[in-house]
Amino acid sequence: MSAATRRQSGLADMEKLRAALRGKAEVLAPGDAEEPILHPAVRAAIYEWLTEINAAGELSAVGVKPRTTALLSGPPGCGKTTLAHHLSARLGVPMVNVGPETLYDAHLGASERNMADLFDVLATTKGRCIVFLDEIDAVGTKRAADSGGGAQNARNSMLTVLLRRIESFAGILIAATNRPDTLDPALWRRFGMQIDVALPDEDARYAILKRYGMPFLFDEAALDLLAAVSEGAAPSLLRQLMEGAKRQIVIGGRMRRMPATAAEAFRLVVAQTRPHPDYEPPPLWRDTDVLAALQPTPWPPEVANKAED
Fold it and tell me: Is the pLDDT of residue 7 over 60?
């Protein structure tokens, strides 16, 4: 089978999967994944896992199976979904993104049926996809042995179904949580890896800022400063910061209030964006006076292709 034929077959299979999971989950194509900029420890863990998956035959020869489940934990916006999608792209398979809102139902027994229906469809893929269970703490909290009432009993029952289905699932399954301490111990044990998706270090923050600043060529000294004063920022917040700056550049002229300096532009953006309440605010969000050092920075920055011309 040629590469083109395999690609067409893969696209057809993905569309069938989308149709089968309509209303239950979102199916993301591997080609749409974005390569994450990771903390070195997270990057090393993912590289090891990919190597392990690709060495399944060699591991089998010594009586070991590759791990097929992982729990990603970390605060909101730290890149857990992006990381899971990237892994699916590296393996060349779609990612099935499942949110708790598509599973939980207040009607008696409905949540368990939703869970069973989902995994019945996933079983037909024979492992040719990655399953991503987002916010798993919504359905996987510690079970209560006493009077939790009907809602607690329903959650306990749903968790029991989930545990059984994870155990029997033939493919790769990744779950994500912001609250790992709330997970039921039995659910925790179902994961062969537990990875803390750490917030980006200064080098990673610089790379994220530069990526989302494109196609503008932001001054390197300015990016260095922004990376230093955004310690503790999640990738999503850094993206907001740079996309906000680009909006200032594009619409400033239309609104006849183009910021005169980089410091002024970034102050406007910071005033409109806030870190998630779970985070300690980064220095930049505590005191925008740190932006005074941007005063000499040329503004607005040039566009990459124009600079090359």
Answer: no
